[in-house]
Design goal:
- It is a single chain.
- The protein is α+β, with helices and mostly antiparallel strands.
- Helices cover about 30% and strands about 20% of the residues.
- The protein has five helices and ten strands; from the N terminus they run αββαβββββαβββαα.
- It has a four-stranded antiparallel β-sheet with strand order 1-9-3-7.
Length: about 230
């Protein structure tokens, strides 16, 4: 085997190893193509797939809003242990972007296409083999990108009923997102000027005097323009 063939073989092996490493730390799980029905659950993310990543796992769901023909205008999604307990454990999850209500349901907005959260390793360990499922109302959970969490996120924000309704129609604004009013402009003539005095001589420094004169000049010009 010549040198060129050896190098090609080594390059191919390196690519194969790289692809294997990527697969260990991330995966996409195909879930539902059709709506399972109100307050029902479809396919799950197997527990083995979550444990294979090791540690806390970031889950990014691809979702589709199914607008109801009749009934309440809700888009809810609740993570559940499908095989044993449908009460849910949303309060044990983390997310910087998701919202939840008292029932442990994620609140989704009209047209929302994804939901991101972190499920801690200690929660994964409590799941049955069937794994992580999702009880839904007017939401189709189409797939899930799962990967090892690289950093923790915040506790999921709990909303009141009124806030949840605003999220649904895209009108909710978190307090931290509200922009503060810009400070009012000040007149140059009204700006305070500090004049320092030499402790040894009691005289004002030359720089301070020049600064006072400059401000006074600006104030005079401004006063003439106003007239």
């Amino acid at each position: 085997m010549n040198v060129k063939k050896i190098l090609c073989s080594l390059a191919a092996a390196a690519v194969a190893v790289s692809m294997t490493a990527v697969n260990v730390f991330a995966a996409t799980v195909t879930l539902d193509s059709e709506y399972p029905g109100n307050w029902k659950a479809g396919k799950c993310i197997p527990k083995a797939d979550l444990e294979a990543l090791g540690g806390d796992v970031k889950v990014v769901l691809e979702v589709e809003i199914k607008e109801p023909i009749v009934g309440e205008h809700l888009h809810h999604l609740r993570p559940i242990d499908h095989d044993t307990n449908w009460v849910g454990f949303t309060s044990d999850l983390q997310s910087d972007t998701a919202f939840t209500n008292d029932d442990g349901n994620f609140i989704l907005a009209d047209g929302q296409t994804s939901v991101e959260f972190i499920i801690p390793a200690d929660v994964i360990s409590t799941l049955a083999d069937g794994g992580l499922g999702f009880m839904v109302c007017n939401v189709i959970v189409k797939s899930a990108d799962i990967s090892k969490a690289d950093a923790p996120q915040s506790s999921i924000k709990l909303l009141t009923t009124e806030e949840a309704e605003k999220v649904t129609v895209g009108e909710y604004v978190a307090a931290s997102d509200e922009t503060e009013a810009a400070p009012a402009e000040t007149d140059a003539a009204a700006e305070p000027v500090t004049v320092t005095t030499s402790p040894a001589t009691g005289n004002n420094s030359v720089a301070s005097v020049v600064a006072v004169m400059a401000v006074a000049g600006v104030a005079a010009v401004a006063a003439k323009k106003r007239k």
